[in-house]
Design a protein that fits this description.
Mean pLDDT of chain B: 94
Structural class of chain A: alpha+beta
Order of helices and strands of chain A: HEEHEEEHHHHHHHHH
Largest interface: A-B, 103 and 114 residues
Distance between the termini of chain B: 42 Å
Radius of gyration of chain B: 23 Å
Mean pLDDT of chain A: 92
Number of strands of chain A: 5
Oligomer: heterodimer
Largest sheet of chain B: 7 strands, mixed
Helix content of chain A: 25-40%
Radius of gyration of chain A: 26 Å
């Protein structure tokens, strides 16, 4: 053990979720729904709002850019441009004027996924006729905090390229900012959700090896093996664990086979 | 403000200098030697935060009285109720349902769907929005033995060995056995799995796996699972009702001590609602936002152990609550990304973990606790960490070598969400490595359940991160997404059977809460905190100093 550690000179480094502003951090003015607060620079909008003393109920979820709870519109004083981002991912810069949009009503009709087998494009037209009224203004694309080309996937949907629309919309966190700005009143993110599920269920090829394995599980094939493991002494399980053969990293799935085939 | 500073760029040159030879060796399947079982134990004892005596104490009341747990958890369990139990009008029932699901993440939603399929009326109560959960944040994948070279037998061995043989064998067997069924269920619900052209599920290694069985949807596997499940729940509005921003704060029991509902709290109107239910599921997720030992966390905003607190007050035993998973790779730079999870998939794709000299010091795919211990050792003991401007230490995770192993563009393709998250700060992780350090990731222990997700209280079920025993004292990557779905489904199915036969409660009671309050007094606990905590408090000191009201 190093001397440094023994003497306890290294202090615990972590500090929970509170940001440590860098030494000598500059303080900047930000405007939360118009009211001025002075916060250290480099904070995300979310952490700046908390630094100002707000406690979130709505508008805060994963704090990691994936849940879509913290969609935010903002402008800078003296700049006409309206910008959008996720509060947990966007850095608050001087003179930013912030308004979070924790919720936006979306059109989201119910459907039965199994019905989408035959003509999903027709089903899209029935469920989301407004998709076909896109005026192509591109505001959704400019608004998307995930840099998704929303207008493009809407165009693909209209054209019936569901595969393209599913892939192009895949990064969507469903924050709803696109829908809030759409002059054609489209709820892009719910329509895209429908298309992705149709694609995953009816268009993407099924996994043959999975089907076979499910049949094996349902037939009870592994119950005896698992029962035996459950009843085993710890040292015996340990021995089996240590003796496991590791599938090589570059092995091709479905080609490489282990020496122990008795337990497959 | 973007990008790495000049002195970091200097240090990164050391990483670049060793990269070509490391990539050559990796291509040959040659890797840094893994630790032996004895070394693993030694490293854990010496460096893992769970194995330290400080910051822990015995719980003084309740079914686990005497068990040593972290200070933060002991304090939360020795807590008083949010509501005045005597004042709640239990005859004023706001909702009556077959199954009440508390917590709408992966486990809760899977249970609701299964119960609805079996004909139940389900009420879901959730603190934030439907789907706000750690499930959303799980990136790398979901394990299941679907490939020919694999089977539930090998999956079982990996899980129990990764958990240092402290897992409940029955739960492990259920997990491994149901895994392929869960993947099939998700495929049928239209989840966009990463697949080959012929439909074969892509599969990768994770830390501690003997077979490649990690299935994924980009690097947002959990988010994809959650949005698919939530969407399906949205198609079943006739049988599944969701109450958002209305967390449960207390369980209700019936005259025989069985689960009979809960008291919900509307965070916005500040009303309490009495819910009567034939069966209750606790699926409230983990405790990352308790910031055990001051660690940052990868967890979502609501991960405050509410379910554990409610169940404990009602008399349910907890297990392994002293066991916390520190994910080896949390971002420590830039400051805005601190605590952010860097999926294990990065190492699954072959990225090395390197010290300040650009040199490897451990096998990158050790079980998570061991990998964390290795990184803490390198930084705190061997002094080979990189210091950030905000006083944090980290080591390099060499993502650019993924491009060299799997071809140009593979980082952007395999890790789209991570790529974007760093790109925001002008760091291109396909060209430059990431700086990482362990971060609080997962509650290993929790409510004691059996393989049908049943607790010791009749009609009370629990599933997901809030429950303990599945992973023992250490969880492998890709088994938590699996856990929430396996035990969520099992809970929903069992709850359906139970609620059809149980008849339902005659009277509702909060007596257990009153009794628990008395036990606190008897134990001499005079100033208990109020729990469930519901939301963490991040107000800084300068704000608190001016909050003068009572």
């Amino acid at each position: 053990m190093s001397d440094e550690k023994k003497s306890g000179r290294i202090k615990p480094l972590a500090t929970g979720d509170m940001t440590i502003p860098p030494a000598g951090a500059k303080m900047i003015p930000i405007y939360i729904m118009g009211r001025e607060y002075i916060v250290p620079e480099t904070l995300t909008i979310m952490k700046a709002v908390e630094y100002a003393g707000y406690k979130y109920i709505r508008g805060c979820g994963c704090r990691g850019g994936i849940c879509g709870a913290c969609g935010t519109f903002y402008r800078f004083i003296g700049d006409y441009r309206l910008r959008a981002g996720l509060a947990c991912q966007t850095v608050a810069e001087p003179n930013i004027v912030i308004m979070q949009l924790p919720f936006f009503p979306a059109n989201r009709p119910s459907y039965n996924l199994e019905d989408a087998d035959g003509s999903p494009h027709e089903m899209l037209r029935t469920l989301y006729p407004e998709v076909f009224k896109c005026v192509g203004c591109g505001t959704c694309t400019r608004t998307c905090p995930m840099d998704i080309d929303v207008m493009d996937y809407i165009a693909l949907m209209k054209r019936g390229d569901l595969k393209g629309a599913a892939h192009k919309s895949f990064d969507c966190v469903m924050c709803g900012l696109c829908a809030s700005r759409c002059p054609a009143q489209i709820s892009q993110f719910t329509a895209a959700m429908f298309i992705r599920r149709v694609f995953g269920r009816h268009i993407l090829p099924k996994a043959g090896h999975l089907k076979k394995r499910i049949e094996e599980v349902l037939s009870g094939k592994y119950e005896k093996m698992l029962e035996a493991l459950k009843g085993m002494e710890r040292d015996d399980v340990k021995r089996l664990y240590v003796g496991r053969e590791r599938e090589p990293d570059m092995a091709v799935a479905g080609k490489w086979m282990p020496k122990d085939r008795e337990h497959l | 403000m973007g990008g790495y500073m000049a002195d970091f760029m200097e240090l990164i040159k050391k990483v670049e200098a060793t990269r070509p030879s490391r990539v050559e060796r990796a291509k040959k399947g040659d890797h840094f030697p893994a630790l032996t079982m004895e070394q693993r134990q030694e490293w854990l004892n010496e460096y893992h935060p769970d194995y330290k005596a400080e910051g822990r104490r015995p719980i003084r009341v309740g079914p686990n009285k005497g068990t040593v747990v972290p200070e933060e958890i002991a304090g939360l369990l020795e807590s008083r109720a949010v509501v005045d139990a005597m004042r709640v009008d239990l005859t004023n029932i706001a909702y009556s349902t077959d199954l009440l699901v508390i917590g709408a993440g992966g486990a809760g939603t899977a249970a609701a769907l299964s119960a609805a399929e079996a004909g139940l009326k389900v009420l879901i109560s959730t603190k934030l929005r439907h789907g706000d959960s750690n499930t959303v944040m799980a990136e790398g994948g979901i394990q299941a033995a679907t490939q020919e070279a694999d089977s539930p037998y090998f999956h079982y061995l990996d899980v129990i060995g990764g958990g240092h043989f402290s897992n409940e064998p029955g739960l492990v067997a259920a997990l491994a056995n149901d895994a392929p069924l869960i993947i099939g269920w998700l495929e049928g619900l239209g989840m966009m799995f990463d697949k080959e052209a012929d439909g074969r599920l892509m599969a990768r290694h994770g830390g501690g796996t003997s077979r490649k069985r990690m299935h994924s949807a980009g690097d947002m596997t959990g988010a994809e699972i959650m949005r698919v499940l939530r969407d399906e729940a949205g198609n079943r509005r006739d049988s599944i009702k969701v109450l958002e921003f209305s967390p449960a704060v207390e369980l209700l029991l019936d005259e025989k001590g069985g689960a009979a509902g809960a008291v919900l709290y509307n965070l916005e109107t500040k009303e309490y609602y009495v819910v009567k239910a034939k069966a209750v599921l606790i699926s409230t997720g983990g405790f990352g936002r308790l910031h055990i030992q001051g660690f940052p966390t990868t967890n979502h905003y609501g991960a405050t152990a509410d379910g554990v607190v409610m169940a404990y007050r009602a008399g349910v035993r907890l297990k392994d609550m002293d066991s916390t998973q520190y994910h080896p790779t949390g971002a420590v730079y830039p400051e805005q990304n601190v605590g952010l999870l860097i999926t294990e998939k990065v190492r699954g794709l072959g990225a090395h973990v390197l010290n300040a000299d650009g040199v490897e010091f451990c096998f990158p795919l050790e079980p998570r606790d061991v990998e964390s211990a290795c990184i803490i050792r390198e930084c705190l003991d061997r002094g080979k960490g990189v210091l950030t401007p905000t006083g944090r230490l980290g080591v390099w995770l060499d993502s650019p070598m993924i491009e060299m192993l799997h071809g140009e563009g593979s980082v952007r393709r395999e890790l789209p969400a991570k790529y974007i998250q760093f790109k925001r700060y002008d760091i291109d992780i396909s060209r430059l490595p990431m700086l990482i350090y362990p971060t609080l990731h997962y509650q290993n222990g929790g409510i004691e359940i059996n393989e049908f997700s049943e607790t010791s209280i009749k009609g009370l079920f629990s599933a997901g991160e809030v429950a303990g025993g599945v992973h023992g004292r250490n969880r492998l990557m890709g088994n938590s997404l699996l856990d929430v779905l396996v035990f969520g489904r099992r809970a929903g199915i069992r709850a359906a059977e139970y609620s059809k036969s149980c008849g339902g409660a005659n009277t509702l009671s909060l007596r257990h809460v009153v009794d628990y309050g008395k036990a606190l007094k008897e134990a001499g606990i005079t100033n208990p905190v109020v729990a469930p905590m519901l939301l963490p408090d991040y107000a800084p000191a300068h704000v608190k100093a001016r909050q003068y009201s009572f």
